[in-house]
Amino acid sequence: MRCSCVRKPAPPRSRPPGAAVQARRAVIAAQREELLRWRDAGHLPDSSLRILERELDHEERTLPPHDDH
User: DSSP letter at 2?
Assistant: First the structure.
């Protein structure tokens, strides 16, 4: 016998697919800004900055193209 006091978890709210991509682009942009702050503060050499920027470039290229509608 099942207890009626136990509820099933609510299904996750779905967001439009573009919202996740837009959020990911915003995170990448924030990461780029933070890397520049680290470099400007002397905590990150230029050579390391370039490597990390290339990784962010690669990650950005894996996202679908911008939808400018």
Answer: -
Q: What is the 3-state secondary structure (H, E, C) of 9-58?
A: CCCCCCCCHHHHHHHHHHHHHHHHHHHHHHHHCCCCCHHHHHHHHHHHHH
Q: Which residues contact 56 (CB under 8 A, 6 or more apart)?
A: 28, 31, 32, 35
* Band (11; pLDDT cuts 50, 70, 90): low
14-62 confidence digits (pLDDT tens): 666 789 999 999 999 999 999 999 999 999 999 999 999 999 999 999 9
Interatomic CA distance for residues 20 and 15, integer angstroms: 7
pTM exceeds cut of 0.85: no
